[in-house]
Design brief:
The chain is mostly helical. The chain contains 9 helices and no strands.
């Protein structure tokens, strides 16, 4: 009986020791797990090929697409006009030195017909004005002045009309941008009014409002600067052309037409 009790106590002691060791191992494992850093969960990469501007361009409805086409059209038309005016609004295109020298030489000789031929061979704004005066040489100096004044007004109007289209681009671009801004805000508030707004769609609507405003200003600001630059440049050339024209036709008071 005594041996059986000792054996039972020994077995119980061995079970207790085994349980203690198991509990200690569990505690160590739990401590190691707590000390180890948590695994980093990486966010999925953004979708390639669809930028915010792409979503704004094609995700704002048919009206937004029309607005963007109009903005791109205004920008392209402005660039064309800026290059065109840079080529044509120059002294060499409006009143070339060769024409002035040839007409001066012909007028010193008193040969109005020769001067008229020089103007017809080189059509420019100044040659058109001089031609209008030379064709009325037999009708008196007052008629010549009236013809020159009318032709000068016509040529100046043609030059200014070309510049006026730049002003149109400068004025219409911010209007289109403002319309896009209003459209984007209407869509944004309509999304908020649904009760459970789509955050992605709301961001696209706000981006539509901001991008169209930026697009309109991007076209308008350089267009305004270009318009005033070429307008002032054209005014200087026109004043110089008018002074040169009056200097050339003043000798028509007493000139005689040479018949061939």
């Amino acid at each position: 009986m005594k041996k059986t009790l000792l054996s039972s106590l020994a077995v119980a002691g061995m079970l207790a020791a085994s349980a203690t060791m198991t509990f200690a191992q569990d505690v160590d494992i739990g401590a190691d797990a707590a000390a180890a850093p948590a695994p980093v969960v990486q966010a999925p990469p953004p979708q390639q090929g669809q930028s915010v501007f792409y979503q704004v361009l094609f995700g704002s409805g048919w009206l937004g697409t029309v607005l963007w086409l109009a903005l791109f059209g205004a920008l392209g038309f402005y660039i064309y006009l800026a290059i065109d005016c840079g080529i044509l609004v120059r002294p060499s295109k409006i009143m070339p030195d060769a024409l002035v020298n040839n007409v001066q030489a012909a007028m010193k000789e008193g040969d109005v017909v020769k001067a008229l031929q020089f103007c017809e061979n080189e059509p420019t704004p100044m040659s058109n004005i001089l031609s209008a005066g030379f064709t009325h040489v037999e009708e008196g100096f007052d008629v010549i002045q009236e013809a020159v004044s009318a032709a000068a007004d016509l040529e100046v109007e043609r030059i200014m009309q070309r510049l006026a289209w730049i002003s149109v681009c400068a004025n219409i671009a911010p209007q289109l941008g403002l319309l896009g801004t209003v459209q984007g805000m209407i869509m944004a508030f309509g999304n908020l009014g649904n009760g459970t707004p789509d955050v992605g769609l709301l961001a696209t609507n706000i981006s539509q409002a901001l991008y169209t405003t930026a697009g309109g200003l991007t076209t308008s600001i350089p267009a305004v600067c270009t318009y005033y630059y070429y307008r002032n440049r054209a005014n200087r050339i026109i004043l110089q052309m008018e002074a040169t024209t009056m200097e050339l036709i003043k000798d028509l008071r007493n000139v005689e037409v040479v018949a061939e």
